[in-house]
Amino acid sequence: MGRPRSESSREAILEAAFKLLVERGYGGFAIEVVASAARCGKTTVYRWWRSKAELAVDAFFHATREELRLPDTGSAREDFRSQILELGVLLRGERGQALAAMLGGARTDPALAKALGQRWLEPRRRWGFERMSHAAATGELRPGVEPTAALSLLYGPLYAPLLFGGEIPAADAIRAYLDLACVGIFVDSG
């Protein structure tokens, strides 16, 4: 059965993996390099993770776990504003660099695309669609607003830079964008 897994080794591997993902991108990310940086053997890494894709996604979530809040204030407009502003803060830092590296790597690595889709994109897409559908049912959306189009409009300023190598807008720019987008999506609550 082998030696028992060490939680301190696991932590060191995740921290080294995240740092390397930020510094080198997904293309320069390798199990051997992570093992060396974490001061362990690559067999130790493979005891926890079957592939570099799994390790990269776990390292990202290990560094991000505290900030993945999906709010429910009772107001769809405020829920989306709050979530998008928090997401902007997260994406402007190292976690945004790591996510951008993985999104780029997902184009050529199906295992990474699947893991990233399941753990990052789908839960957020599901929350957004459910929240937008609830807003439509409660009369918070303007008549004729299509939820999927509204979600693309709201999140586009954050994801487009990740995909195309631009900078995530600063909080003031995101607020200005949200002010404009919300006028077209949500019924005025005032």
From TrEMBL:
Gene3D superfamilies on file: Homeodomain-like (1.10.10.60), Tetracycline Repressor, domain 2 (1.10.357.10)
PROSITE patterns, A to Z: HTH_TETR_2 (PS50977)
SUPFAM superfamilies for this protein: Homeodomain-like (SSF46689), Tetracyclin repressor-like, C-terminal domain (SSF48498)
Keywords recorded for this protein, A-Z: DNA-binding, Transcription, Transcription regulation
Regions recorded as binding DNA: 30-49
Domain of life: Bacteria
InterPro entries on file: Homeodomain-like_sf (IPR009057), HTH-type_TetR-like_transc_reg (IPR050109), HTH_TetR (IPR001647), Tet_transcr_reg_TetR-rel_C_sf (IPR036271), TetR_C (IPR011075)
Residue span(s) of domain HTH tetR-type: 7-67
Name of the protein: HTH-type transcriptional regulator
High-level lineage: Bacteria, Pseudomonadati, Pseudomonadota, Alphaproteobacteria, Hyphomicrobiales
